Every structure is written in structure tokens, then in C-alpha cells.
Amino acid sequence: MVKRLLYERQYPLITSLDFHLLCGQAAEAVAFHCEAHHNNEVVVEEWHPPTFEGPGCEKRRDLRFSVPLSAPTWFRKIAGTSMLRLVDEHRVQLSAEGAMHFSSAPRELVPVGRQLPLYVQTLVTEPALMEDGTRGIRV
């Protein structure tokens, strides 16, 4: 079963690069996982390369974290854990037009490293004209 969620927001007076610089920080990833999964033991690697070398370039990093295993008690006993250990590969691509594409592909660290049925994509476009006439981005 595929579940799709569409979320759109507008942020006035910033560029897609500003958005990435703010939201792409390691502290933001830790804060997200602390709030979403009640887990602050998140390992966030540095972006490689650290900066965009130009339009059409890509940066990537890995995050390692744990999330509660949502399964019946009998399954958790068989699995021997109540937590899933994950690694999440983040990629950010910058287009020549200034749009930014973010993708997240989490997978299990143990036992076999198979791909989870979850993939997150975010497209940040600019410039967008806000309702008040100012320029900003659309996410």
C-alpha cells in the first residue's frame, strides 16, 4: 500500500539556498527526531561536499537514529527489540533555475539493511510571488 502526503507552504523573503542553510543544519535534524520520535541520540554526518559547487550539483549525508517499532508484542519478542535502528540517506540537488530538490531514503541498519517502504521528497522552488506581492519560496 502506498500512502502519499502532499504538504505545501510558502516562505516569504528567503531563497531556496537560505531554506537549505537553515533546515539542513545538523541541529535541525536532531531537533526533528527529538520531537517526532522522542529520541535525541541521532548521529548526523556532515554534508559531502560541504557546499554546492554550482547549479546541477548534489550534496549528501547520512543520519543514524532509532525509532520505536510499531508491532504486536509477540513480534517484538521474536525480533528481540522494541526499536528499529535506521540510516537515512539525505540528498539535496540544486538546479540551474535555483530550485532545490531534497530526498530522504531511510533503511534498516539491522538485520539485513533492506529498503523501507518510505521515501521523502521535497522540492523548493523560487522565486514565488507571495499574496502580499513579496518574493519568497514555495516548499
TrEMBL record:
Protein name per its UniProtKB record: Uncharacterized protein
Source organism of this protein record: Elliptochloris bilobata
Lineage, highest ranks first: Eukaryota, Viridiplantae, Chlorophyta, core chlorophytes, Trebouxiophyceae
